[in-house]
């Protein structure tokens, strides 16, 4: 599979942009530098560097360290099975195979899922030409992703404002534990495209949450809430549950704890109690929802 610079659209005027060695720019001369690590920053903020939006460096370092253990690989494998099925369909559709198959990860974090998906497609579907874009509002997240994963285009962008992709141009959009922007996603997803979102299931990290004594949210309701959030624009096609046990050692447990909101809601005492544990057997429980747009995209950007 060859690496392609993802065709971005301009966050200012919404025209198609082109890539040069040093910048991406639109015909109206809005230009965005390509950082040394290879990512593009489309999000201009006046906030100081220590006050940037999105996940903090601390959370990101913990998340990367946790994901590097591959404890969440079964979830990533589930996403890869979904993409495999879609890619096989795309390959058998001669019309689709004319252009690259486009994957967008919104709120991509430090890039774990999109990178694993790209590797999976390269191994299993070498004939499917793809283009891949991860966007996140956290500059630190995008920097970490770009530094490590070179076969994907990465960009800092506020998906609540504008997703830098053309109307109906995305074949698969992912939103993994990320905010869900139904209208904005609907604009960019192709009429035959899919949106796959992952949310925590009702038993997700129940043991850790109980130890932290933080209020356990009613995640059963979250699934219905998510479906309702997408309903004006998307129809639910498929729902899968991924559930498994993880034997976490002390360090992995600490990284997992530090990358989730429960940590930030816990008391100091709870944090210290968990820091003192040798390890924990914890349940991972996810709901993977696949949607399709309920009407053709193609509204004005
Ligand atoms: C819980 S993290 C999940 C990251 C990644 N998908 C993963 O599972 O490892 C949510 C991500 O959404 C990003 N995010 C939050 N608001 C956003 C926005 N408005 N536009 C783009 N990304 C956003 C955060 O910076 C963070 O990286
Ligand atoms: Zn422009």
Would you identify the CATH architecture?
Answer: 3-Layer(aba) Sandwich
Q: Which spans of ≥5 residues are poorly predicted at pLDDT below 50?
A: 297-301
The kinds of small molecule bound in this structure are: S-adenosylmethionine, zinc ion
Highest CATH level, the class: Alpha Beta
- Total beta-strand segments: 11
CATH superfamily heading: Vaccinia Virus protein VP39
Q: What are the secondary-structure elements, in order, as H or E?
A: EEEEHHEHEHEEHEHHEHHHE
Specify the number of helices.
Answer: 10
The proportion of strand residues reads 25-35%
Range of helix content:
25-40%
First and last CA, distance: 30 Å
Structural class: alpha/beta
Strand order of the largest sheet: 4-7-6-5-8-9-11-10
Give an account of the 3D structure.
- The chain has 301 residues and is of the alpha/beta class.
- The protein has a single domain, classed as Vaccinia Virus protein VP39 (Rossmann fold), CATH 3.40.50.
- The protein is built from ten helices and eleven strands.
- The protein has helices at 57-67, 73-92, 112-124, 139-148, 182-188, 206-212, 219-230, 250-258, 261-265, 268-275; strands spanning 18-19, 23-25, 31-33, 40-41, 101-106, 130-136, 153-156, 170-176, 189-200, 234-249, 279-293.
- The strands form two sheets. The protein has an eight-stranded mixed β-sheet with strand order 4-7-6-5-8-9-11-10, sandwiched between helices. It has a three-stranded antiparallel β-sheet with strand order 1-2-3, with no helix packed on it.
- Helix 1 packs across helix 8 (250-258) and helix 2 packs across helix 3 (112-124).
- The longest helix has 20 residues, at 73-92.
- The chain is globular and about 55 Å long.
- It starts with 17 loop residues before the first strand and ends in an 8-residue tail after the last strand.
- Mean pLDDT is 90; it is low at 297-301.
- Bound molecules: S-adenosylmethionine and zinc ion.
